[in-house]
Amino acid sequence: MDHAVAATVWGFISGGALVLGAGIGYRVNVPSRVVAGIMAYGAGVLISALSFELMEEAYDEAGMAATATGFLAGAVIYSLANRLLTIWGARDRKRSGAQQPDEDSDSGSGAAIAIGSLLDGVPESIAIGLSILHGGAVSTATVAAIFLSNIPEGLSSAAGMKKAGRSAAYVFGVWCNITVACGLSSYLGYALFDGLSPFVVAATTAVAAGAMLAMIVDTMVPEAFAETHNLAGLIAVLGFLTSFALTKMAG
Asked: Which is nearest to 36 in space by CA: 244, 229, 250, 242?
């Protein structure tokens, strides 16, 4: 399969997990504690993937200076964008309870939540495209980790959207559009950087990793800890171990 096509397909597949999770969260009354536990597991999965796949690849190709600079830059960019979206009403977009505002109480929050959800998914998808540039084939471990983490993200957020009174058309419209954006982002992650130096690719990979870690702490950890409390760490460790095992088996 052509590399650009492969990047796009795997981006769609990983993004499709958001729709799968949203379907469960919107149609099934999943207890908040269960949702939070799944979110903790997803957070652990992503932390492992960005540590042992993205950061390790960036360091091997470009060294500490480029990796650290890109990592911090990604975190700063994400945090600034997330701060703006928080002001506009998207702070609790990953929460499954009644924290999300409705459109009547916070006009424009629906658009902010949609944009925020897109912001959360783009760095992960770009990383899929970049993984092909690193190894000549898509990283199975990276795709699996993103797929596993996207299910609880979609599940929790959709449950919160429903409680805020948002329609099924809005909820599934958001996640279907984000799935398309994930496929395109994976394609761009490959196409825009194909032919560029390993240094640039590595630094960009670190940017994606930094944005992902900031996203995990800002949006996934609060939901995970809110209901599971002291169990959140243990569940996250299980997710981390799952992703770590995938990384080693794929290697």
From this structure: 229
User: Going by C-beta distance under 8 Å and a sequence separation of 6 or more, which residues neighbour residue 73?
Assistant: 206, 207, 210
Position 34 pLDDT exceeds 80: yes
**Structural tokens at position 14:** 């990983």
Q: 112: pLDDT confidence band, cut at 50, 70 and 90?
A: confident
- Nearest one of 116, 118, 123, 115 to 186, comparing CA atoms: 123
Which helix H or strand E contains 42, and what residues bound it? helix 32-49
- CA angle in degrees (0–180, nearest 5) for 123-245-20: 50
The answer to which of 68-77, 81-90, 186-195 has the lowest mean pLDDT is: 81-90
* DSSP conformation letters of 181-240: HHHHHHHHHHHTTTTS-HHHHHHHHHHHHHHHHHHIIIIIHHHHHHHHTTHHHHHHHHHH
**CA atoms of 99 and 92, how far apart (whole Å):** 6
Give the number of other CB atoms < 10 A from CB of residue 197: 11
Question: For the purposes of burial, counting CB atoms within 10 Å of the CB of 136, is it exposed (0-12), middle (13-18) or buried (19 or more)?
Answer: exposed
Mean pLDDT computed over 213-229: 86
- Supply the DSSP symbol for 86: I
Mean pLDDT confidence for 69-95: 85
Task: Report pLDDT for 228.
Answer: 83
